[in-house]
Amino acid sequence: MSTSIQLVLVFAVFQIRYAKGDLFSCPSTDSLAHCISEDCRMGAGIAVLFKKKFGGVEELLDQQKKSGEVAVLKRGDRYIYYLITKKKVSHKPTYENMRKSLEAMKTHCLNNGVTDISMPRIGCGLDRLEWSKVSAILGEVFEDTDIKITVYTL
């Protein structure tokens, strides 16, 4: 009589979905995320569109968030995440601050039942971070969650 033992390994694979098109055309149930500086200037790039669409600059400033944290606005049934990745608008973010901001966003998502986030290629436009590194950090931060992330490109 022989006994065989099977070992089954199951790996959870975090996936980032990609969509071509306007970020603001995402489902209205998705929360949104992008990067800003502590001074909440939002004077260039996609940040200008966030400022026009959602306002709330004073509300963001009142939160007094620092680099590596996340400021949050609630608009309707969704959250708008402002990843604070640098001190001043003229500075460049670090990958470490990006990671810390994403961790802060993840904590807020888990505490508030957020399951879907849409975002641009965060930190990779005017801030010039490398998407291959940022997407790897995203994967590491969110791998143990069921939060779905969709990245929009034009």
Written overview of the protein:
Residues 1-21 form the signal peptide. Residues 3-154 form the Macro domain. It catalyses: alpha-NAD(+) + H2O = ADP-D-ribose + nicotinamide + H(+). This protein has one domain: Leucine Aminopeptidase, subunit E, domain 1, CATH 3.40.220.10. It is globular and about 60 Å long. It is α/β, with parallel strands linked by helices. The protein has helices spanning 46-54, 57-62, 95-112, 131-142; strands at residues 16-20, 31-37, 69-75, 78-86, 116-119, 148-153. Helix 4 links the parallel strand 5 (116-119) and strand 6. It contains four helices and six strands; from the N terminus they run ββααββαβαβ. The protein has a six-stranded mixed sheet with strand order 1-6-5-2-4-3, sandwiched between helices.
Write the layout of secondary structure elements.
Blueprint: E1 16-20, E2 31-37, H1 46-54, H2 57-62, E3 69-75, E4 78-86, H3 95-112, E5 116-119, H4 131-142, E6 148-153
Parallel strand pairs: 1-6, 2-4, 2-5, 5-6
Antiparallel strand pairs: 3-4
Helix pairs in contact: 3-4
GO biological process, one term: peptidyl-glutamate ADP-deribosylation
Signal peptide: 1-21
Main location: nucleus
Structure summary:
This protein has 154 residues and is α/β, with parallel strands linked by helices. Helices cover 29% and strands 25% of the residues.
